[in-house]
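Morning!

This is the sequence you dropped in the shared folder:
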Amino acid sequence: ALFAYGAVKARLAVLPEGIRWVHIVGAGFLGGIGFTMSLFIGGLSFTEKETMDLAKLSILASSVVAGITGMVILWISGRKAGGGLA
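The structure's back. Tokens below.
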């Protein structure tokens, strides 16, 4: 979201019609769901089982938080615009 903001401010890009910054931020949070690479890197980094188990739990928790946060941001922005999920 920060790089998109910088690109728009530097006039290297423009937001598509109908897209607001809240959409960019919400989609950015949804990007935090991808945890496969984090598990791979954790597997390479940690050799002790207890440490890897803690890393897996942390990765799963942060993915859940990112997904819920992104969903809530986009849901609220849709309700304010007259749309939404419900």
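Headline: The longest helix spans residues 49-80.

More detail when I'm at my desk.
O.
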